Amino acid sequence: MIVLACVVFVMMMLGAGVQRVTGLGFGLVAATGLSLVLGPVGGIVLLNVVGLVFNLVMIRQVWREISWSKVALLAPWAAAATIPGAWLITVTPTAVLQVIVGVVLVAALAVVTVGRNRIRPTSSRWAAITAGTASGLAATVAGVPGPPLTVYAQATGWKGPGFVASLQPVFTVTTLATLAAKGGAGLVDVSVIPWWVWVTGSLGMVTGLAAGTVIAGKVDENRAFTVTVLLAAVGALAVVAQGAAAVAAG
Prior knowledge:
Blueprint: H1 2-22, H2 26-38, H3 42-62, H4 68-90, H5 94-113, H6 125-142, H7 146-156, H8 161-184, H9 195-215, H10 221-249
Helix pairs in contact: 1-2, 1-9, 1-10, 2-3, 2-5, 2-10, 3-8, 3-9, 4-6, 4-8, 5-7, 5-10, 6-7, 6-8
């Protein structure tokens, strides 16, 4: 119990802190540890709920920098994609789902590191539709809505504080839709997650947000992001290995 509580706290703290500094990373870091200790369904539901609170707090802090036109362009497609994402979870065995979650996390890491620097510039509306849809699917299955939107930002030249700020309401809409879709599919049963997990997860999120707020602007964002990628890569590979072992065992 103590070890599990510490893992949940640390994962939430690191994820929240890094996202406060760089604009994304909450899901990439936290989803790996939570999937390992709570399973691919319970871990992502916890991440969805606590992440929703985190995004709402972030919105209050960055309200003036939000580009609502960008939010309106991306959020509807992300919300719509949560429905097939929830369906996929219902028809997939737990062990296989854990492999899928790990693979999605690995792919997301590839996208935000190597992939985003090889995207050709575009202003096509189809780019927004694709990014929004991919974000909704990734959020529902693996709790990582950010990477597709990072690629979209790279392709459209969308940079600066407005990008970080605008992601927060997009994430909020996506998370609400994800929880609604999972609830409709019978996947949201918060009673199966012990109360102390909710408490330690929430405390970790608050601690990370506070620390990130203090150091934002004082640390190199690229270095912080590199740490995020390394942590998430180790966790994602561990998730894949655990799921693959479970599949092999039968």
